[in-house]
Amino acid sequence: MSLKTMVLMISAASLCACTLGPDFKRPVPTSEVQWLPVEGPRAPSQAVDASLGERWWDSFNDPQLSALIQQAVEQNLDLKVAASRLLQSRATRQVVSGDRYPSVGLSGQYSRARNSAVGLNDPSYEEGHSAFNLWQTDLQTSWEPDFWGGIRREVEAANANVQVSENARRGVLLSVLSETAADYIRLRATQATLAVIRDNLGVSQHSLKLSQMRFDDGVATHLDIAQASAQVAAIEARLPTLEEQQARLINALSLLLGQAPRALQAQLEKSAPVPVSTERLGMGLPSELAQRRPDILQAEAALHEATAMIGVAKADFYPRISLSGSVGFQALQLSNFGSWSSHAFAFGPQFTLPIFEGGRLRGMLKLREAQQQQAAIEYQQTVLKAWHDIDDVMVAYNAEQLRRDRLAEAVSQSQVALDTVQHQYVSGAVDFLNVLTVQATLLSNQEQLVDSSASVSLARVNLYKALGGGWQSMLPVATNGQASKPL
């Protein structure tokens, strides 16, 4: 059999080769679950048919928030680490893909040597009595036809691993988006609370002056002055804690943007309203969730990778055949180097067949099958957790809106009550304890209203995160198995 015939036979056999192991079938999440908003006489969180907004942060109509999110996407260090891991997985895929093709290498060597007179044959035929020159060069090639699909399965697993890294980066991006928005909302809520405290401090100081005037007129007592002074001091004592919280939130935003502590102090220390979205909340279709949430896509890619690795383990049970060869020149004299008489070549196939591995191959196959089963369970768990996340956040979003509306009414009535009791105190109809009680109630309701308004916005942010929205506008969607480019 000629060499040409042998190469053609091996090439034809490789084209007809099979691929061992199960083929990956994309899991289909249950479609029976639907969005179930809380029902009732006032249920503002009910889902609408509108699609999920990709740039949902713009719905808060806060240019500062949108600018911070853009900076976070460009500068966040966690995102840069995730992008680096994606590059590593792509490089790994490139390494694995190289096994599908022949390898070709060129080597050259010159040496001056002298052999032993009583050792191996002396190529100079001087029986070790003189040194000689040796010039040689070789062009080597080798190729292992993928008869059983083991290499194809390795490439398939590497492609799936790229998707794991790609969706991990999307998950990090989604977290960065939501954390930036959440910290910004908390910052504005803290500043709003500071404003409420300072307003109430002014009211308390006015009450103290009023008590002092009444005491000078002989109408009030030392008790009234002491109570008014204690209230002023108690309200003042709350300011340092809120100011510390404001500085901490500004630093948290600085960290998300990859900047030093206090880098955003001048930019964010001036208070602004708590961001509120007045747009209707579009949640998209439930069937789109598995194509949108990065953790579900990542779990799916991990299942694909584990499935492909079963085929790699099965291919190890079968013979491996490789074809290698070399062609080159070798001569003792440079003048002869390159002539036809100095050429040399070698070609031939080689095969290896596992006969006894002590159970290693079977153990590896069982390991890969168990890993695939685990990946399938983790995928189901991820999908189920996603539904729970959405349902929990929808309940919280609805409840917080109802709470905010009632607190707004409570603040309005508490303000009326304070104005009334102050006039009654001046006229002597009530004692100062009534003023303190009403003012404390107003302060509590105002603080709760600020907290509830912020909680409504935070619940909306959490709902967008649970729905997996936001990363699409910052990263192009992967197509044809190719991951999107780094940020």
Automatic annotation (TrEMBL):
The family this protein is said to belong to: Belongs to the outer membrane factor (OMF) (TC 1.B.17) family.
Signal peptide (UniProt feature, chain positions): 1-17
One GO cellular component term: cell outer membrane
Keywords associated with the record: Cell outer membrane, Lipoprotein, Membrane, Palmitate, Signal, Transmembrane, Transmembrane beta strand
Protein name: Efflux transporter outer membrane subunit
Source organism, top-level taxon: Bacteria
NCBIfam families given in the database record: outer_NodT
Keyword Flavoprotein annotated: no
Subcellular compartments: Cell outer membrane
Gene3D superfamilies per the UniProt record, alphabetical: Outer membrane efflux proteins (OEP)
InterPro entries, alphabetized: MdtP/NodT-like, OMP_efflux
